Amino acid sequence: MKKLIFTMALVFQLVLGAANTEETFASGNKLYTEQNYSEALVQYHSLADSGYVSSALFFNMGNAYYRLNQLGNAILYYEKAKAIDPDNKDILANLAIADAGKIDKFETVPTPALTRIWNSVIGLFSASTWLTIALVFIFGGASFLTLFLVNKNKSTVKFSAYVALGALGLFFLFIGKMKQDQMQNNIYGVLVTSNAYVKSEPNGGQDLFIVHEGSKAKIEETFQDWIKVRFSDGKSGWLTSSEFTAI
């Protein structure tokens, strides 16, 4: 009986929470349509701060920031929306418009051909899919090899095929691990202040160069309130967490 009451209470809380989320989101959207963008962002941020994740939420936040001429925050939330729904045409279109307004135009360091090919192979599937494929091949190879060993009629060709099956599984496992590491290491952020000087080191380093809001960079390292970033042209340095926010 106690378990039933607990389950019913949990379901009620989930339903109530979902209703409150929809109500808050609708309230934010209403404020947005009334051009009360700052007030709309208060509603949107209350959802984001509660842990609610949605491409629609981040897209609307990007729109509200763009209307307020806060280009850095607009790009940040368009990027967050894109990370969840990378093929959404509206997100991609608005992000392109916001990107066009950036002051900084970084040249991209050319990627070697072999690296591009390898990245294309890794990018065929998600890390979990690669790992699943690997386990299927490894389990299949091990199973067939076990049957081969207990079978009286042995064939060199079959033995080689079963070993190759297991080896392929290990190779796919390696790719899956590479994809996983790539996802963990490829963390980007956006400059949300109007501009900032990139420092040679945290806590009083020399000014290396200036960047402007909306500039996107890869996060390489963090130290206290400092973030080491690398831009697409290869330049790197340190920015504070108040200036630069992870996507």
Summarize the structure.
The chain is 60% helix and 15% strand. With 247 residues, the chain is α+β, with helices and mostly antiparallel strands. The chain has three domains: 2-100, Serine Threonine Protein Phosphatase 5, Tetratricopeptide repeat; 113-185; 188-246, Roll (SH3 type barrels).
Describe this structure as you would to a colleague.
Residues 4-17 have low confidence and may be disordered. The protein is built from eight helices and seven strands. The two termini are 46 Å apart. By secondary structure, it is α+β, with helices and mostly antiparallel strands. A five-stranded antiparallel beta sheet has the order 6-5-4-1-7. The chain has three domains: 2-100, Serine Threonine Protein Phosphatase 5, Tetratricopeptide repeat, CATH 1.25.40.10; 113-185; 188-246, SH3 Domains (SH3 type barrels). Strand 2 and strand 3 form a beta hairpin. Helix 1 (2-33) runs antiparallel to helix 2. It is elongated, with a radius of gyration of 25 Å.
| Approximate shape | elongated
Which structural category do the helix and sheet elements fall into? alpha+beta
Mean pLDDT: 88
How much of the residues is beta strand, in percent?
A: 5-15%
- Give the strand order, joined by hyphens, for the main sheet: 6-5-4-1-7
The total domain count is: 3
Within CATH, the superfamily of the largest domain carries the name Tetratricopeptide repeat domain
Largest sheet geometry: 5 strands, antiparallel
Quaternary assembly: single chain
**Number of separate strands:** 7
